[in-house]
Design brief:
Blueprint: E1 2-10, H1 16-27, E2 32-35, E3 38-41, E4 58-67, H2 71-88, E5 96-101, H3 106-126, H4 128-132, H5 137-142, E6 150-155, E7 161-168, H6 194-204, E8 213-217, H7 223-230, E9 234-238, E10 255-258, E11 271-276, H8 282-294, E12 298-306, H9 313-324, E13 330-334, E14 342-348
The chain binds S-adenosylmethionine.
Residues 191, 193-194, 218-224, 238-241, 261-263, 277-280 line the site of S-adenosylmethionine.
């Protein structure tokens, strides 16, 4: 029944080729498109951590692929694997959870959920000690993890295939199901892209603090300015279009609209945060970022880069090359969950 045993990497559907290009160029790893939103790599390959990549959302280490198995036989096979694991790891004390998921497909999700339920039923009746170490997916994702904690994953990419993986947190897996960390909707935000900046800040691991200064290039209708002000920053919101500060509610006193060209704007004094979400070609945006860096005009940045529809890797590579040349403490490029044909560059001096 098992067809393959390979590492499986998940990405946004449609970004399989850019991920292959990234892994080949940055990590010398050659992958093959193995299923919907999945690229697989040989079991012997050393995988990067999800957070160190642009396009990977989740890793299923040493995943087993079953083709054509009904729910019951897929679950039985997974249970056998779990029994082997618990025998081998009976001195381990790490916590574990189980993700059963599909990507944007209700039928496949229902199938993964049914199999996960069968597996949990087996653990409840036959693996009492292992069950004591179980955490709900929510608790697993929102409390501190150790490198020996285990994530079991069941992915249903189609109606006839199932992938099963058992990996430890030491392997750079995301704690979120399919790598999908939902951001809370921000009440009162004037646009949905507010959540995108929250996601970028969570990824950077630093937020603006009270009293920080910030410039938001391409600010209207104000979602990103809202997020910066909500964290306590004083914001210059640069946009040649109108920006209605009334939409900012109680935060409007922290935001000044500067009606100017974001391609040319420079603050009088260096600011703590420069964020940029202007809709324009990547070259222009990278030109703005380069100029700000050369003028030492910011200490942190979050910059959105539009990608060409086909073959985006060269553009991504150029963007990474630019931010890596800054020599800063932390710079990253990330295809955020909120990003479609774009990536977000983030950096901290
Ligand atoms: C995608 S929207 C920004 C959304 C915003 N980040 C939010 O969260 O609400 C892009 C904005 O960039 C502005 N923009 C585009 N080119 C610009 C330029 N050269 N100078 C100033 N603003 C520009 C547009 O007017 C538009 O309001």
């Amino acid at each position: 029944m098992i067809q393959l045993r390979r590492h499986l990497i998940l990405m946004r559907p449609g970004f399989e080729e850019p991920l292959k290009d990234e892994f080949s160029a940055r990590f010398s790893l050659e992958g093959i498109v193995a299923c919907r939103a999945g690229v697989s790599f040989p079991e012997s390959a050393r995988m990067p951590k999800v957070v160190d990549t642009v396009f990977a959302r989740q890793i299923l280490p040493r995943a087993l692929q079953f083709i054509g198995a009904d729910d019951k036989s897929a679950a039985e096979f997974i249970c056998e694997r779990i029994d082997v694991l618990t025998k081998r790891g009976n001195r381990q004390s790490g916590s574990w959870t189980l993700h059963g998921f599909a990507i944007d497909d209700d039928d496949n999700l229902a199938r993964a959920t049914r199999i996960a339920k069968l597996v949990m039923g087996h653990v409840r009746t036959s693996q009492k000690d292992f069950l004591k170490r179980y955490l709900s997916p929510e608790a697993f994702a929102t409390t501190e993890r150790t490198s020996s904690d285990i994530l079991l994953q069941i992915y249903a990419p189609s109606n006839d295939a199932i992938w099963f993986s058992c990996g430890t947190m030491a392997e750079g897996i995301s704690v979120w199901e399919a790598g999908f960390q939902r951001m809370k909707t921000l009440r009162g935000a004037p646009s949905r892209s507010a959540s995108k900046l929250e996601e970028a800040l969570a990824y950077l691991g630093v937020h603006p603090k009270a009293g920080d200064t910030a410039v938001d290039l391409g600010a209207a209708p104000g979602g990103w300015s809202f997020v910066l002000a909500r964290h306590g920053a004083h914001v210059q919101a640069v946009d040649h279009a109108a920006l209605d500060l009334k939409d900012m509610g109680p935060l409007k006193g922290e935001i000044i609209h500067v009606k100017d060209n974001g391609l040319k704007f420079m603050p009088e004094k260096a600011v703590d945060w420069m964020v940029c979400d202007m809709v324009m070609g990547a070259r222009d945006t990278l030109g703005v970022l380069k100029a700000w860096h050369e003028q030492k005009a910011m200490a942190n940045f979050v910059v959105n880069i539009k990608l060409p529809k086909s073959n985006p890797w060269p553009q991504v590579s150029e963007a990474l090359g630019l931010i890596e040349s800054f020599g800063w403490t932390s710079v990253k490029g990330r295809h955020l969950l909120h990003d479609r044909s774009e990536i977000t560059l983030i950096g901290r001096k």
